[in-house]
Design brief:
The protein has about 120 residues and is of the alpha+beta class. It has one domain (about 20-115): OB fold (Dihydrolipoamide Acetyltransferase, E2P) (Beta Barrel). Helix content is about 25%, strand content about 35%. The chain is built from 2 helices and 5 strands. The radius of gyration is 17 Å and the shape is globular. Keywords: Signal.
Length: about 120
């Protein structure tokens, strides 16, 4: 009985903290750099990189979602991702993008997971 209860608790915890993600391989069609509140200048605002990838599904499967992924300047990989995106766009090379199944940073954009060349 204790073993069954423990198993159910562990299963519940695993389900509660499960992070769904998607992955896509494609070329960068465009990218934008802006602050979170871009209509007002504020040096303490967070910066955002939005990059669009051809063939990427609409964000969070919304009908009006965009085929873009976003990452903020608060993320530890921001500078590396920015360099990778600029390189991929400049070289016209496809890259591998993993995105989280969430749109918390911008409501019409996938949240960043990881990125790389293959």
């Amino acid at each position: 009985m204790k073993l069954n209860t423990l198993f159910l608790i562990l299963l519940s915890l695993a389900t509660a903290f499960k992070v769904h993600a998607g992955s896509h391989y494609g070329k960068i069609t465009k990218f934008d750099l802006h602050s979170d509140n871009w209509s007002k200048y504020d040096v303490s605002d967070v910066g955002i990189l939005s990059f669009y990838v051809e063939g990427l599904p609409n964000s969070c499967n919304q009908e009006n979602g965009l085929n873009r992924v976003v990452i903020t300047t608060e993320h530890p990989l921001f500078n590396a991702v920015l360099s990778t995106v600029i390189s991929a766009k400049t070289l016209d090379r496809a890259l591998y993008v993993n995105y989280l199944d969430s749109c918390k940073v911008r409501h019409k954009a996938w949240d960043f997971g990881y990125i790389g060349f293959r």
